[in-house]
Structures are given as C-alpha cells and as structure tokens.
Amino acid sequence: MDNGARLRLLGEGAQFDVSVPSTLAAQTALSDGPGSIYEALSADGQKVRLLKVMLSNACRHDCLYCATRCSRDIPRASFRPEELADLTAELARAELISGLFLSSGIVGDADSTMARMIETVEILRHKHSFRGYVHLKLLPGCSEAAVATAAGLADRLSVNLEAPGPQRLSAICPAKSFERDLVRTLRWARDRIGPGHVRAGLATQFVVGAADETDRELVEMTWRLRAELGLARTYYSGFEPIPGTPLEDREPTPLAREHRLYQSEFLMRAYGFTPDELVFDDGNMLPLDRDPKLEAALARGDEFPIEVNSAEEWELLRVPGIGLTTADRILSLRGRHKLTSLRHLEMLGARADRARNFVTINGRFYPREEPAQQLSMGL
Predict the structure, then answer these.
(1) Can you give the C-alpha Rg of the chain in angstroms?
(2) pTM, two decimal places
(3) What's domain 3-197's architecture?
C-alpha cells in the first residue's frame, strides 16, 4: 500500500477522534485534501487545518463500538515514524495544514506504540524544525515515562475516557481499567503541564450513547475532571453504529443530544455553572426541546428578573442572551452610564429577545409570552 492510500485509510480511521464539536464543523475530511485533513479550532476560536491520522489502525483491544476493534475484518495499515513525519512536514510546507493530530491503535503494548508516536513527533520537531501545533493522544495503559516525554513535545495531550465511569466503560471496553489505564494517565499528564509543555492543555473524549450512560453522568464527570485535573476541553462523540461490531444494530445518538452536552460543558467552563444548576428530566437526560441555559433560568424563576444596572457578573451570566462580552461591557459602564432600554442592551451585544423575560432595565420589565431559544454554543 503506497503512502497516499495509507494516509487515506489511517485518516479515515482518525475521524472518530474529535478535534472540533460536530455542532461547529463536520467530522469528515476536507474534500480538497488527501483524505486526512480535518478542521479544528484554535485557542481563539479560529478554524485551522490539522492532519488527523493514526500511526496504525491495528489494535489489540476489542471495544464493542470501535471501527478498528481487533476482531473486525478491515484493511490494516501502519506508518513508520519517519514516513509519517516526512509526510506531515511536506503537507505543512505546502501550507495545506498547520498542525498534527496523532492517535493510534495499540500494536503490541501501549508503551511500544507510544514510543513510535513520540518518535514521529521528535523527527517532525527536530529534523524538520516543525513548530506548528501537535495534539498527541496518550494510549490507555502507557507509562508515566511515556507521558513525560510526550509532554515535552506536544501542545495538547488527551486521553479518551470513552465512558463516564468504570461500570459504563466495562460495558463497552471490557479490557480497559477506567482508573488505572485512563484517569491515572490524565493525572500524570496534568503534573507535566508547565512553561513550554502542553500549552493548549489536556482534553478527553466520551462516546455518547454506546454504554447507556445518562447525560447527568457525563456532565458530572466533565465537572469532576475540570475541577480535579484542569481539563481544557471535553469532547463528545455521538455513537454511530459500525458494521461488523456488536453494536451495529443500535440506534445512532441524535446530534441534538451531543449539542446539549456541548452547551452544558460551555456553561460550566466559561460561565461557572455547576451541575446542580443544570436541569435534567426524570431519566437524568438533558431536555432536547430547550437549551440548558434557558432551562436553568426557567427552573429558577423566583430568582428573576434581575436589574441589569446593579446585578453582579455571575447573575448577569445566568441570563439567557447575555454572554461574557456583554456582561463585561455592562459592568464597565457602571458609574458612567445607566442602561434604560432593550435597545441599550442590544447595543452591548446581548440577545434582547432571549434576555427580556429575565431582566429589568432601569426598573422596567419587558417580558413576552415565550422566551426565544438558543441555537448556537454561546450565551
């Protein structure tokens, strides 16, 4: 198999590692690349192009949902470290990519596969003087020494937890230990973050819907990981049935469920929400018919409306339609100007159609019968 064919095959396998929420970009390779270039988001929210590829799609594990599980009959391929490093450098020189997202199946044992992944990045950094972004997946069960070496080379490290706890993980990945193989690896990575090391932080990914987990479990584990390990991002990959796997007849996870999880993660990460502020139904799932910020505000109707001219920042951030930028602008005007109308709120960047049911402006209330819904990730 030539390099181009391997790049397409191993790029296709890497699509299941999420580099940008599917609510913001498709999880498919860009059509104008070699079949392995995907969109991601930079730290400032700009879309960038990554070579997202597996070093090998051979794997010793037999996870029930996985496209590359060892018992599935598919073409297998691998790159040697120098081959993949040279290809990455060539694509970077052609300005087709600005970074590398490298994962792999586990061939033999975790440390020997991690050694080949690390060698790939070392060649890229040292032989080719590549200074672009590198996201390196840490393999389940790898050693602390492997994590330490990876931290000296990568801009972001991540470990796929796949499920929100030991019991859920054992249902879909019976050979993996949640605490020993996954969470412990994230803790080692956290301890290696410092100047020049892992500047883009740590991340993880859950497969949503494969293990019959609830949204509450996912949200609470996301909160725990952020509080204990300082994770920069959590990604949610909605389950898709793969032919030739034990879960091939299971229904796919609705995109709306994935979207609600991303909105909830954003509320906790950017606005300081806690899991207790979010609303779940009787089955511990996030309602799909209302966005989580609106649902949280409606559930605490006795706390609203608040007066925008005197509310504290955390109160403003609980108002649907008011985000961080608008809240900062409102606070910066205090003592110099007073807001007196919905139009003033709009001029500061708020979505007045969403906020009007939850605020007073200079003592005046502007409610309407049904608050507007939130469709995007913010506010």
Answers:
(1) 23
(2) 0.91
(3) Alpha-Beta Barrel (3.20)
